[in-house]
Amino acid sequence: MTLHTRSVAELAAGLARKEFSAVELAQHFLSRIERSNAALNAYVTVTAERALADARAADEVRAAGRAGPLTGMPLAHKDIFCTDGVRTACGSKMLDNFVAPYDATVVERLRAAGTVMLGKTNMDEFAMGSSNETSWYGPVRNPWDLKKVPGGSSGGSAAVVAARLAPVATGTDTGGSIRQPAALVGISGIKPTYGRVSRYGMIAFASSLDQAGIMAPSAEDCALLLGTMAGFDSRDSTSVDRPVPDYVAELNAPLAGVRIGVLKEFFAHGLEGATGALVQAAIDQYRALGATIVEVSCPSLPLSVPTYYVVAPAECSSNLSRFDGVRFGHRCKDPRDLMDLYKRSRGEGFGAEVKRRIMTGTYVLSAGYYDAYYIKAQKVRSLISAEFKAAFDKVDLLIGPTSPSPAFDIGAKVDDPITMYLNDIYTIGANLAGLPAMSIPCGFDGILPVGLQLIGPHFGESRLLSAAHAYQRHTDFHRRVPAAYA
Amino acid sequence: MSLTRKDVEGIAHLARLEITEAELPVYTDSLSKILSFVEQLGAAETGEIEPMAHPLEGESQRLRPDAVTERDQHAKFQQNAPAVAGALYVVPKVIE
User: Fold this and answer.
1) A8-259+436-485 domain in CATH 3.90.1300.10?
2) Chain A residue with the nearest C-alpha to that of B32
C-alpha cells in the first residue's frame, strides 16, 4: 500500500511498528511536493532541510523509546502561523520579507509532539477570501480539477491534503476558512470552539471569530491532532482554561440516541440541487445509523453574512493597523514624510480585497455610523447566538451543507464581492456564536466533492468527531484521492 | 447606501491607505454595494438585546499579573525592520 494514500492514523501505526522511518516518510512527501506543487501552487514555502532535520530527530526519539503518537508525522502549516526562522507571509506582499521571530503556540505544541514540518501553505491574503484567489502568491488550484478553486482561505492546506502532498495540515477559520475548502477538495476539517486552541502567533484577522483547527483525510485524523493543539495558553487572553478531552478515546461513542437537528434555514434558496441531494442522503444515512433526526430553525441565521461583513471588517481594520511600514513588513521607497510612509506602504503592501475590508471596517466604526452598523451587528450576533443555544436545548448536533455548491471556476466570482461572500452563508453562523463545527465529504457532484457540515454546542468537539467518525466507518468518500495524485 | 468618491477618499485617509485614481471608482462601487447589503440588518428586531461582547457566555477578557514575562529580544525582532539605528526604528522626520 502506497504511503501517501494512508490516513494519519495508518501512518502513525506504520511509524510505530517501524515499517518505515520518519526520514523515509518525509522524503516520500518531499518528492511528491517536488513533482506536483508547481501545478497546484499549494505550498508557498517548502522547508525540506527543516523537515529532514525534524524527521531525523523524530527517528532518534523513537529509537530511544520516547515516541508519542505523532512522532515523525509530516505536516504542513498554513502560512498564517508564525514559524521561528521561517518566512511567514500570510498570503501578502506586506509580509513577503517577514521571517517570524517565534513559533505560534500551535506550531510549538505540534513540534514538541514530534511532527515534521514540510512547509507553509498558500492562503487568501490575511485569510480574507473564500477561493484562495486573493493571495499575493497567486491562486491555488483544486486537485480534483485544476480549473477550479480549492476554496479559502485555507486553500493551500486543503489542496496539499487532498493531493496527498502532506498527510495533514493546520488551518484557521474565521468565517468558514477550514470547512469550506475542506468541502471543496473532499477532506475533513474541524474548527474548534472559540478559545479551545490558542491564537498566539496566528496572524490576527478578526479576533473574536478567528480559531485554529485541523484539516486531514478523516475525522479520526483530526481527533489525533486536535488533542495536541488544544488547551489553555496564558499568551492568548481569550484562551479558555478547561481540560482537553481525549478525542481519540471518545471517537467510538455510539450514534444511537444522538439527536441531530436539520437546520431549516440551510435548505432555503441558494443551495444547488445536487449538493442538497447529497447532503440529504447523508442525513438519511445518519438516521439509518441510529441517530434521531429532527427539524430545527434558527430564523435569524440568514442575517449571518451581513452581520459578519460588519463585525469581521471592523476587527480587521483595527488588527491590520499594525502594518505601518515601521517595525516590519513592506515599506515604500523614499517616503516624503510619516503620513506618506504609512499610506504608500499600506497601499502597496495590501491587495484589493484586504483594502476593501479595511475600508469597510473603518467606515462602520467611524463616528456617526458605529451604532447603526457595528452595535447593530453585534446585537444581531447575540440574537443568532441565542437561537443556536435554544436549538442545542433540543438537539445534540446540527447538520446541513458546508457550502452551497461544489468548487467553482477560478475567476468566476472575483469581480463581485457579495457573490463571493455568499459562499460562506452556511459556515459563518458557527463563528459568530463561537461554536465548534466540521466538514466531512459526503459524495461527489460529477468529479467534484461535496461537504457535509456538523455543528456542535460549545466544547462539543468529542461529539462532533465521533459523529463524523461513525459516518466515515460506513462510507469511503474520505478515502478517495484525485486520480492524478493517487 | 451610496458612497461618493469624496467619501471613499475620506475613508482611505482614515485607514491610512493610498488609493490610486484608477482604484477610486472600483472601491466607491464595491463599498456602496457592501453597505447596501449589510443594511438588511436594520430590519432585525433587536429591541432589548445586548450587543455581543464575547462569543462564550460568562467569559470575559482575562487579566494577568503585572509581572515581567518577556525577555529582551529586540535585536532579533529588529531583523525584520526596514530601517533601524542602534535599538531604534527609523522613520522620516516627524517634527520640523
Assistant:
1) yes
2) A360
